[in-house]
Amino acid sequence: MQSIERAAAILRMLAGGTGRLGLGEIAASLDLAKGTTHGILRTLRHVGFVEQDRVSGRYQLGAAVLHLGDSHLDVNELRSRSINWADPLAARSGEAVRIGTVRQGRALVVHHVFRPDDTFQTLDTGTLLPLHATALGKVLLAYRAAEPPAELEAFTRRTVVSRRELATALDRVRTAGWGTEIEELTLGEAAIAAPIRGYGGLVVGAIGISGPVERLCDTRYRPHPRLVGHVRDAARAVSADLGAARH
Amino acid sequence: MTERFVVAIDQGTTSTRCIVFDRHGQLVSLAQQEHKQHFPRPGWVEHDAGEIWRNVERLAPLALQRAGITTGQVSAVGIANQRETTVLWDRRTGVPVGRAVVWQDTRTDGLVNTLAHAPGAAEVQERSGLPLATYFSGPRLNWILDHTPGLRDRAERGEVLFGTMETWLIWNLTGGLHVTDVTNASRTMLLDVRTLRWSPQACEFFGVPMAMLPEVRPSVAVFGRARSAFPGVRIGAALGDQQAALFGQTCFTPGEAKCTYGTGSFLLLHTGPELIRSTHGLLTTVAYQLAGEPAQYALEGSIAITGSLVQWFRDQLELISSAPEIETLARTVADNGGCYIVPAFSGLYAPHWRSEARGVIVGLTSYITKGHLARAVLEATAWQTREVVDAMNANSGLTLTTLKVDGGMTADNLLMQSVADVLDVPVVRPLASETVSLGAAYAAGLAVGYWSDLEDLRRNWHRAAQWMPAMEPAVRDREYGNWRRAVERTFDWITPA
Q1: Cβ <8 Å between A80 and B411
Q2: What is the tens place of the pLDDT at every residue in A182-205?
């Protein structure tokens, strides 16, 4: 905990100062040993929060700090890294697969694999979906990858429009480790999604399947455990590829 | 009953993979190992064949272990390999003679120029269906025999054997069977592509003793049983990697085509049992041959630099930090801003075959940003595909109505949309990205009756994505005109010394 406080102090110093600071100046100002300070700076450099000038060896704030609010994983990178796991998910589940991440307060479809039945389907990569009315969106909300929209628009009479109900639903996603949406966006359609984690376990996206309610759910509107298993396996495989630790 | 599987060995340019497939053509497990690239001089590329075989021996049990299966559950093994790479080894000891000379190697540049003017050159090209180029094994074999003292004599006596990678692997797997398949043999310039036998004229032209050549077999046939790596398992197929991808895409009907987008890109059009001579800068090649049936042919358009242009943009220009970011950067602008990149890094392959061409960036103005350059990088792949498709259509009399794609670059949405736009046909990606391995597995499984027939395989093919053309015809025409003018500017750059 102490090292986190020290790291925060270093960042504040670099943010408040004018220009770059040397290791000696930082250590002296914070009354820390040079070795300790150097260790913290090295870790901060590793995560991109601090940069070191090649010539002078002095430190400054890194680009990653300035873009803390942005998604740190390139969406095309996310598609490229998940494509080998999205295909088997579509093959095993027999349903369409989508991968989503947060963009402009909505779920951006980063990748789409057709339902493998060779019927006519249109690629909807690049489409923005409502967060509160999709399984992908709920997973992204549950893990704080995004804030819920100010107004919860109703798409069907099953759409969750109350903030309290949404909070309960998101709690359930966190407990279960996966999310679902049943006729909340389109009548007759259901979806299952699970989180994709990047470095440090941070949720950077969600992967899921969608299709007719009668194929995804049993007669009591509960998603088939077999399908949930496939979705979670795919999410774990992509996460492992992205370098997430075990979750 | 225990479930059975088929294993593919995909011996590629940068790595070797063993992949286990199930009856639905779904990937069950994968084990992969890169091998060292040797660059002893500029333009030279070599592999250690011994290292590659050791990798296969190591990967085989690993792939089975990851699938949780035993050798006894493997119905057949199929091989797909990097083509044209040339291996020589001692028949008695099995030890390679020097390093394997890789398809990208251009050391035969001067030799190919000399041979082009030698008597019989036209006939050799006619018989093999290939233009004289550094790309193929024949000139390479000639070079090795000329530059290794005493080697030609040993080869005459049958002490030294030649093979492409599948021949080397089968030799080691079976403990001494010296065979090749028709698709790999058709890339040497030594095969008469019509009779599917070694051509004595071509062998004489390239100074290759016929005693060192492997026996030519159909691609889909039981070659023998493995003694190492997969002991007791039948080897059911061997195909060049691009032909394997055509098989994996189930292009079994004349007129069906696929394009594999990797480091380079290779468009193959199945033309059926009749051989079509290329008149438009394409290669006539064997697509596959099922045991006891006539060979099926293909026209091939080979593009040397596509994915490697993105790698160059990343590693040499350092404008992006990962290959997929090229799309992000390209999307920061609406169009190419009038800028075109023609990546003739080692000359141009199909349909131009200009070894003296070198790359250009044209249309530079102070308006151009790195975003425009990124666009131009992606468009270069799209337009090179268009040139090859135009040649295919003109050559075959068939009109391509849809393009099946595979390979790593199909993850780039903007590129796939560009390909659909410039070709003006839908572009379709199947639900199996590993088509090279899948093709080898399909062929091997077919040979041993794991799958019953080609229709059985076709049922496993499903569409995973489709990009529809959406470019204004006037824009397409104007851009294609600009691209062609840019290509002309690459010609005649390298002047004879």
Answers
A1: yes
A2: 999 999 999 999 999 987 788 899
| Interface contact flag, B327 A76, Cβ < 8 Å | yes
In tens, the pLDDT along A120-174 reads: 999 999 999 999 999 999 999 998 877 888 889 999 999 999 999 999 999 999 9
Structure confidence at residue A18 as a pLDDT band (50, 70, 90): low
Say if domain A2-66 classifies as CATH 3.20.20.100.
Answer: no
Contact flag A123-B465 (C-beta cutoff 8 Å) = yes
B61: buried, middle or exposed (CB in 10 Å: 19+, 13-18, 0-12)?
middle
Calculate how close chain A gets to B325, using CA atoms only, in Å.
6
Say which residue the tokens 């479930």 belong to. Answer: B3
Kindly report, residue by residue over B4-42, the tens digit of the pLDDT.
999 999 999 888 999 999 998 888 888 888 888 888 888
DSSP three-state, residue B441: helix
Q: List CB contacts (< 8 A) between A70 and chain B.
A: none
Q: Where are the domains of chain B?
A: 5-249
Mean pLDDT, chain B, whole residue set: 92
Chain B partners of A75 at a C-beta cutoff of 8 Å? 328
pLDDT digits (tens, 9 = 90+) for A26-59: 888 888 899 999 999 998 888 778 888 888 888 9
Contacts of B432 in chain A (CB under 8 A): 87
Distance between CA atoms of residues A83 and B50, nearest Å: 33
Cβ-nearest to A90 among B24, B27, B431: B431
- Shortest Cα–Cα distance, B418 to chain A (Å): 15
Instruction: Tell me, rounded to whole angstroms, the distance of Cα B385 from its chain centroid.
Output: 15
Query: Domain-by-domain residue ranges, chain A?
Result: 2-66, 75-242
Q: With cut-offs at 50, 70 and 90, classify the pLDDT of residue A246.
A: very low
CATH T-level fold of B5-249? Nucleotidyltransferase; domain 5 (3.30.420)
**C-alpha span between B457 and B250 (Å, rounded):** 7
Are residues B324 and A112, on separate chains, in Cβ contact within 8 Å? no
Put simply, whether A236 touches B (Cβ < 8 Å) is no
Tell me what ipTM this predicted complex has: 0.81
d(CA A3, CA B265): 51
Per residue in B75-99, pLDDT (tens digit) is 999 999 999 999 999 999 999 999 9
Ranges of H-type helices in B305-460: 307-315, 325-330, 370-396, 413-423, 435-447, 454-458
Partners of residue B464 in chain A, C-beta under 8 Å: 87, 90, 113-114, 116
Query: Is B465–A113 a contact, with Cβ atoms under 8 angstroms apart?
Result: yes
Same fold, A2-66 and A75-242: no
Q: CB under 8 Å to B294, separation ≥6 — which residues?
A: B273
Q: Is residue A17 less than 8 Å (CB to CB) from chain B?
A: no
Interface test with A, best of B319, B463, B467 (most A CBs within 10 A): B463
Q: Rounded to an integer, what distance in angstroms lies between the CA atom of residue B249 and that of residue B404? A: 8
**Chain B: residue whose CA lies nearest to A114:** B464
Residues 6+ apart with CB under 8 A from B261: B306, B307, B381, B405, B406, B407, B408, B409, B410, B415
Specify the fold of A75-242. Answer: Beta-Lactamase (3.30.450)
Contact B206, B144 (CB under 8 A): no
CB atoms within 10 A of CB A105: 13
This model's pTM is above 0.90: no
Count of CB pairs separated by less than 8 Å, A with B: 67
Q: Is B24 on the interface with A (CB under 8 A)?
A: yes
Whether A79 has its CB under 8 Å from any CB of chain B: the answer is yes
